[in-house]
Every structure is written in structure tokens, then in C-alpha cells.
Amino acid sequence: MSFVQVIEFETTHEQDVQRAMDDWRDATENERSVTHTTLTRDHSRPNHYVAIVEFPSYEEAMRNSDMPETSALATRMRDLCDGPLRFVDLDVIRDEDL
Fold first, then answer.
1. Which residues of 33-53 are buried (b: 16+ CB within 10 A; e: fewer)?
2. Domains in the chain and their CATH numbers?
3. Distance from C-alpha of 3 to C-alpha of 43, rounded to nearest angstrom
4. 63 partner at 20 to 30 Å CA-CA among 2, 15, 29, 74?
5. pLDDT tens digit string along 40-98?
6. Can you state the angle between helices 68-80 and 14-27, rounded to 10 degrees?
7. Cα–Cα distances in Å, from 52 out to 35, 70, 90?
8. Residue 24 — φ and ψ, nearest 5°?
9. In the predicted structure, residue 39 carries a pLDDT above the cut 80
10. What's the per-residue H, E or C state across the chain?
């Protein structure tokens, strides 16, 4: 069963967040278990963002979370965000292309 993590945060430093995500992507190229990411910005609240991160399984998400590069990204994100990040862990029970 695939697994999705949703991360919500507020920031006025979008470009720095994007750079941090790019740095993480480059540093984990052959190690990460993330299969897909989507970064969104709330249309009516332009400083509110939602990142959607997909994994093959919960276990792979936990392996990815334990990587030093992921810990470094989390630290950078906490520094760039206005307030705490909110994490929602979701088991995918239905997924279809329409």
C-alpha cells in the first residue's frame, strides 16, 4: 500500500524553501524513497503552502525520514517557516487516474 505525507506550513521565504527542497533532492538522488512530490500554494492565503510527498510504503517513508539529509532539511524548514510545520501521514486506500 502506498503512503502519502502532507506537510502544511506558512512562510514568506518561498524561494529559500524551494532551494532547500532542491538541495535535498540533489543530495539524496540515489538514496531517497520518495516517488513523487507536489508543492502547492494556497490561492487565497499566499503564504500558506502544502507539500504532498508520496512513498511506496509507510516503512519506506520512515527509512527516508531517518536519513541525515532529511533531518537537515527539516531543520532548514523550521528556520524558514513562520510557525510550526503540520504533518499528516496518510495510507492510500484508493488511487485512480481520471
1. bbeeeeeeeeeeeeeebebeb
2. 3-91 (3.30.70.100)
3. 26
4. 15
5. 999 999 999 999 999 999 999 999 999 999 999 999 999 999 999 999 999 999 999 99
6. 180
7. 11, 15, 10
8. -60, -45
9. yes
10. CCEEEEEEEECCCHHHHHHHHHHHHHHCCCCCCCCEEEEEECCCCCCEEEEEEEECCHHHHHHHHCCHHHHHHHHHHHHHCCCCCEEEEEECCCCCCC
10 residue type, one letter: E
Answer yes or no: is pLDDT of 1 > 90: no
